[in-house]
Amino acid sequence: MPFPFNENEEVFVKRLAELYEGGKLSIVAQEENQLLWGGQEVQPNERESMLAKMEGLGVICDAQHVGGGPYYRFNIDVKAIEYARDFAKREQEDYVDKIKNTIRRKPILAGAILFISGLTLLAACVTQVAGALKVLGIIK
Fold it and tell me: For the chain, how many structural domains are there in total?
């Protein structure tokens, strides 16, 4: 499933999910600027469009706009957590795909790793069987 977020938006959604999980459901954007954006480098003119997109996707809701600017206050929706979980799942899948691709590109290395792992497993099994036979008194 392609995600409709760029990198900055993805970081922002993860931040909103953290706030939501921490019990911070309502944000007063002007007063809580540092809490909301953290160390994220997003230009003020980009913030409005980003918040509009978040509202359109259901990540934030109940936005209040005042004369001083749009998105004065808004609530974080549970969708932020859903998207953050989807991001985490995608990152895990990306990691598995990287391993699969490495194995496909370097089959000799993959074969060597499997061979060494097999030998290690065989040695562990032999050691365990020998220990069990000693305990039973079959070998000395």
Answer: 2
Q: Is 46 in a helix, a strand, or coil?
A: helix
CATH, residue 26 = 1.10.10
Residue pair 27/74 in contact by the 8 Å Cβ criterion: yes
pLDDT in tens, 64-115: 888 767 777 888 888 888 988 888 888 777 777 888 888 889 889 888 988 9
User: Are 112 and 76 contained in the same domain?
Assistant: no
Predicted TM-score (pTM) of the model is 0.59
Rounded to 5 degrees, what are φ and ψ at 23? 95, 5
Domain hosting 21: range is: 7-82
3-state secondary structure of 60: strand
Beta-carbon count within 10 A of 9 CB: 20
Sheet strand arrangement including 26-28: 26-28, 69-76, 60-66
Residue 129 near residue 139 (C-beta atoms within 8 A): no
Contact by Cβ (8 Å): 90, 3? yes
